[in-house]
Amino acid sequence: MKDMRTPLSRVRGLGSAKTGTRDFWIQRLTAAANVPLALFLITSLVALMGADYATVRSYLGNPLVAIPMLLLVLSGTLHMRIGMQVILEDYVHQPGLKVVSLALNNFFSAVVAISGVYAALKIGIQS
Amino acid sequence: MSLEAQLRPRPLSPHLAIYRRTMTMMMSIVHRLTGTALYFGMLLLTWWLIAAAEGQKSYQLFESWIGSAAGKFILLCYTWALIHHLLGGLRHFAWDIGQGFDLPTANLMARATLIGSVILTVLVWTIGIWVRGAL
């Protein structure tokens, strides 16, 4: 069976034919990953409150910090991209604006992801 | 609009303004708001990492901004948004495994996300200030 939909619903053109299940699952997976990673970020922020440059650099240069930081950037940007897409699909109804806003969401998330990875890797490699 | 959509319009998202406000509804809205705030808050994390990667001078610029009253306030809001969204996410995990749909539990979890997020934010900042000496 290739299609779960009834022939009638297919004729009427209703129901999703897209890839929502995959997004739903990735949103849950990244959410689960983000729980320990967010706790790690909060701990880092508290530990580094008001710290000087050298302290911050040596902290972020530690592989035990750099690797979770990379995971946080990747898992966080994947999660926020899907989350924002859901919000845009709920509230932006005009077709043209919808496509543009969904594209901008993808570009923004990609730029944030790559910038974060670039910086975390640079600190890690230079340490 | 496609022909099908004209013949049989799709159901719209709920009209938010017509309902009586409930705790679960407000926490659902706040979950989206904190998610949106964290979306743009990722710029702050990225700026922090890039500033640290690029050297002392760029880090000082970041530090002088985050160390200002406005910067500290935004960081405080960021930690609260992160904690609230995290607790809200745990609530969604309970729902995903089919638990907590009855009204008393749903209301209890909604209150717990709000009260818990405020308490944990205060706790985190108290520990932070205590560990680092001064703000």
Relevant terms:
heterodimer, A: 127 residues, mainly alpha, 3 helical TM bundles of succinate and fumarate reductases, 0% strand, elongated, B: 135 residues, 5 helices
Can you characterise this structure?
- The complex is a heterodimer of chains A (127) and B (135).
- Chain A is mainly alpha-helical.
- Chain A has a single domain (18-126), classed as Fumarate reductase/succinate dehydrogenase, transmembrane subunit (3 helical TM bundles of succinate and fumarate reductases), CATH 1.20.1300.
- Chain A is 82% helix and 0% strand.
- Chain A has helices at residues 7-12, 20-47, 53-61, 63-91, 95-126.
- Chain A is elongated, with a radius of gyration of 20 Å.
- The termini of chain A are far apart.
- In chain B, helix 2 (23-54) packs antiparallel against helix 3, helix 2 packs across helix 4 (69-96) and helix 4 (69-96) packs antiparallel against helix 5 (103-132).
- Chain B is mainly α.
- Chain B has helices at residues 3-7, 23-54, 56-66, 69-96, 103-132.
- Classes of the chains: A mainly alpha (127), B mainly alpha (135).
- The interface between A and B is large, with 41 and 45 residues.
